[in-house]
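Hallway conversation turned thread

IA: we were arguing at lunch whether anyone had actually written out Hemicentin-1 end to end. Turns out nobody had. So, for the record, here is the sequence (1101 residues) and right after it the C-alpha cells. Reply here if something looks off.
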Amino acid sequence: MEIVLVMTDGKQTVEKDGVLSSDILRDAVQPLKDKGIRVISLGVGKGIGLFDLVTLASTDLDVYTATDFEELETLVTELTKGNCPVHGNWSDWGEWSNCTVSCGGGEQTRYRDCDNPPPAYGGRECLGVSEETRPCNELPCAVDGGWTEWKPWEICPVTCGGGIQNRYRTCTDPPPAHGGKDCSGEGVLTRPCNEEPCPVHGNWARWEDWRQCSVSCGGGTQIRSRTCTNPPPQFGGRNCSGESQNERSCNEQRCPIHGNWARWEDWRQCSVSCGGGTQIRSRTCTNPPPQFGGRNCSGESQNERSCNEQRCPIDGNWNGWGDWEVCSVTCGGGIQSRTRTCTNPWPRFEGRDCNGEEFEERPCNDNPCPIDGRWTRWGDWEQCSMTCGGGVQVSRRSCTDPAPAFEGANCEGDSLRSRSCNEEECPVDGRWTKWGAWEPCPVSCGGGIQLSKRSCTNPAPAFGGDDCEGDSVRSRSCNERGCPADGNWSVWSEFTLCSVFCGGGRQNRSRTCTNPPPKNDGKYCAGESSEIRPCNTLPCPVDGGWSSFGEWGSCSLTCGGGVQDRQRTCTNPPPAHSGRPCDGSSVETRFCKQFPCPVHGNWARWQSWSICSKSCGGGDQSRMRTCTNPPPLHGGRQCLGRNKETRSCNRRPCPVDGNWADWKPWSSCSRSCAGGKQIRWRSCTNPQPSSGGSWCIGSRQETKSCNEDKLCPVNGGWSFWGYWGRCSVSCGAGVRHRARTCNNPPPAHGGARCRGESKEVSYCESSSCPVDGNWSQWGRFSRCSKRCWGGIKRRYRFCSNPRPSNGGKECPGEGVEEIPCNTRPCSVNGNWGRWDNWSPCSVTCGGLGLRIRRRQCNNPPPSHGGRYCPGSSSFTASCAGWLPCEVNCNIPLDFAIIVDTSGSISRRNFHLLQRFIHSLVDGFKVAKDYTHIAIIEYSTAASVQLRFNDLSGRNLTRNNVNKKVQSMPHKKGFTFIDKALRKADQDVFTYAAGMRYDSDKVALVMTDGEQTVEKNSTKSDIEILTEASKPLKDKGVRIISLGIGRRANKKSLEAISSGSDVYSSESFSKLRLLVRKLKKGTCQATVTAAGYKYVRRTKKI
C-alpha cells in the first residue's frame, strides 16, 4: 500500500486571480489518487486552509490538524494506527421478492450492497455475492388417495375354538398428500375361522384345608387333598400332572422351660471421665433360658451406679465479636476494627485458653467519593418537527461532562430546549393534551374504575388537518381492597357411595362456607351444609337374552361351497342394571354354494379319543376322522393322510400305599437334671406312598421322660447395690461406701458362689473452697485500628491464673490497655473537576474545524503524597460546519433535478441522497423571479415528482421543495437514464410545465450505475444516452452529470453532460463535499444554443 503524507503550516499560494486554490490542488493530487496512492494531509498552526487539506486528502478521515509543532508528537500514534486498509463489508440483505410460483417449487431473490463500509485504502472488495436466491412454495399440489388391491387373508390366529381372519388394503395407491382427499370405504374385511372346539387340559382345583394334626405336641402330621376339576380334561385334553394329596409336619414345639437369671457381668466403663457419669452392668436370663413357652425371668436385667464425679476442665471459648468501630474515612477506602473476649466461658479447672486473635480489622467505605454531574454544551438544533404551520426545533445536552457518579448530585435544569420554526400556515393535525388528573374513585372498596381525560387541543385540528387518533378517556382500577363480604357455599362435594347396589338407597354430600368465607363482618352462608338424595333406584341386574337370528348374508364364494352368516342381538331382553351379557356368539355360520364346481375332499374334525385301555401304568387310545368336510365332489381329489390316529395314555404309575420303616434310636435327654425328654422317629418309606397312594397310618414321632429325679445346681447371684454412705469429709475430696449380698439367688445344689466384691468405695466432694482470681500475662498489642490520622492498639490479659471460683475475689484492675498509633495524615489522591464548556468551532461553514474543552485536578487536589489525576487536562475534537457557506444565486434559473431511485441504491444511501438534495436546494433563492425547481425520479420507468409551475405564490419556497424531495419514492428498479432524459424534455422543460422563456435552464442528472441496455437493443449505452440528451441540449438546457460510487460509468456521464460538466463522488456519504461546488457551477455558468427560441442569452463555457 502506497501512502503520501502532505504537511503544511499555511494555505496554497494562488498566482492568478479568479482561480480557486482547491481546483489547483485537485488537479495536482488527482494523478496520485488515480494510481491508487492514499494521500494524507496534515496542517500545523492557525494559518492553515482546511478546505485545501480536505481537497488533498483521499477521505475525510485522512485530514489531521495540530495547533502547533509541539503537538505533532501526539499525532504519531493516530497517524500510524489509521493507515490500514479498510475492507469492504456487506450491508444487510434486502427483503425477499415475491415467489415466482404459488406451488411446485419457485424462487425468491434478495440483494445487498458492499457499503457497510465500502472498501477503502486498498482494502478488499466484499467476498460473496450481492444477489441471493432461495426455493419457495415447494409443496406439491393436492393428491387424492387411492386403494391398493386386497391382500390375502391372514393366517387364523387360533387353531381351534373359533377365530377371526382379516385381510387388508391400504390407501397408498397413491396416498393422499398435500390436502388431497382420503380414500372412501373400508380398509379391512373379517370372517370367522377354525371354529371346532379346542382340547381342554385338566387343571387342579384349590387344595382343601389341612386336616387336624395327628398329635397336639412333639411333632405330628397333617394331610390335605385336591381334585382335577378346574376344569376337568375334555375333548382329548391332558389329565392333571402331580399328586392329589400332600402332607406336612405339625405341633413340633417342645414343652415349656421357665427362665432363670445368670450371674451379673462386671461393671462397664464409666460414661464420662469427669463431672459425674454412670456405670452399667447386666445379667441374662440364660440359667436356663425360657424355652417352649416357659416364663421369662422376673426382675431387672440391668443395674446402674454413679462414677467419676470429680469436676472436668473447662476450655475457654470466645464471646461473639463486638460491633465494628466507625470507619476511618467516609469514602475512598478506610479501615475499621472490632474485638472479642475469652469469657464464654472463662478457661477453668486447667482448661485450655481460647485459640485465635482477639482483634480483627477490615477495609471499609471503598466506594469512590461522589462526583456531581455537569451539562455538556447545547447540541445543534435538530430538524424542525413540522414542515409548516409552526413546529418545534429541539436542542439537547446531556449530564455527562462529567456524568454524576457515586451518588454525586445530578445536573440542575433541563436536558432539552426548544424554539419555534416553520411558522407559515399549513394543515394542522390535532394533538392530544396531556392526560388530566385521575377522577375520584366511585367506590370506597371492592374495586372501582377511575377515569382520566384529555382533549384534542394541543393543538386543535385546523386548516383541514386530521383529528387526533386514540381515545380521549382512559381508565384504571381503584380501591381494590376487600369490602365486607358475606360467606358463600363452596361447590358440593362428590356424593358418597350408595348404601345399596340396587333397589333404592341413599347418598350424602356436603359443602363448606368457604367460597368465600365470611369476612369483614359479612354474613354466614344461608342454607344446609349437607344433602341426601336417593340412589340406585333402578331394578336389580337383568341378564341379556338373544333375539332370533336375522336373514342369512350373501355367500362368501360363488361356487364350490362358501360360507354365509347371520346375526342376532342381545336384546331379548338387553342386559340391564349390570346384568350379564348373553352367552355364546352373536354370529352363526353355515356352508353355502350357488352352483357345483370341483370340490376337493377335506377331512372332517377328528372324533373324540376313545377310552384309554388302562387306567394307569400306560395304555392306548385312538380316534377317527372322515373325508366329509367336504367329501370329494364333481371330480375333486380325495383327502390326503390317515383317517385313524393312535396315542399312548394314562402313563402315570398306579397308586402305591405307604408303610412305616423301623423306629430310629432314642435321642439324648433334653436336660441333664430336673426332668427332660427323649424323642425317636420313624419314616413312611417302606414303601413311600406314590402315584396317589395312601399315607402311613399312625404317628411318626414318640416321646418319653428322663432325668426326673436329679436336682440342678444353682449359682449364686448378687443383690442390687445398697445406698451410698455419707462422704468422709464436709468439703474438698473424700470417700463413701456401699455394699451388696450374694442372695439373688443364693448358691444351691453345688452351684458357684458370687464373683466380685461385696463392698465398693468412690470419691466424693461436698463443695470447693473459695479461690481468688489472678491475672494472666499481658498479650501482644493488636494491629493499629487505622493506617493514618491516628488509631488505637490494644492488648489484653485475663483473670485466669487462676480464675476466681467458689465465691473467690475477682482480679483487681483492667483487662485491656490502649495506646495511640499511626498519627500521620493520610495521602489524598487527586480527582478531576468538571469539564469546562466546549470552545466555539473554529469554522461555521464549509467543512471540518476544531473545538476544545479543559478541566482541573481539584476535586479534591492531591495532598500528603497522593497521586495526581491520571489523563489529560484538555480534550480536542473535530467539529463541522457542514452547511455550505452562502453562495449568492440571484438569477432567473429553471433547475431540474433528475434522481436515480434504482435497486442498486440501499435504503441508507437513498436517505443520504435526499439530504444532499436538501443541502443543494437550500443554496438557491427559490422565488417567483429567481430559481424554479423541478424533480424527476427514475429507475425502470421515469416519473415527474415536481414541475416548475406546481408551486407558486406563497407556496414557492425551498421548504416546500424539500417536502417533495422527502416524499420521493424509492422504486428499486433498473437504471434507464434515457427514459428520465426524455421525460425531462417532454414533461418538464415545456411552457405547459412552467418553463420560462427568459430564464437559464439546467438539468442535474444523478446515478450510481450505468445505463441499462435491453437485450433486443442494437445500440450501445453511449449511443442511447447521446440520442436521449440531444433534445434537451437543443432547447439550450445545460446538463450536469453526477456519478456516485465506483459503479458509475464515466463515459456514460460524459455522453449525457454539456461539455465537461461531469462530477463524481466516491460514496454517498461524501456527497456533502460537492454541495458548494455544484451550487457555484450551476449558478455562475449556463449553456444555451444561439438563435434558439427558448434562449434568453448566449454564454460561452
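OS: looked through it. Residues 907-921 form the longest helix (15 residues).
IA: good, adding that to the notes. DSSP finds nine helices and 37 strands in the chain.
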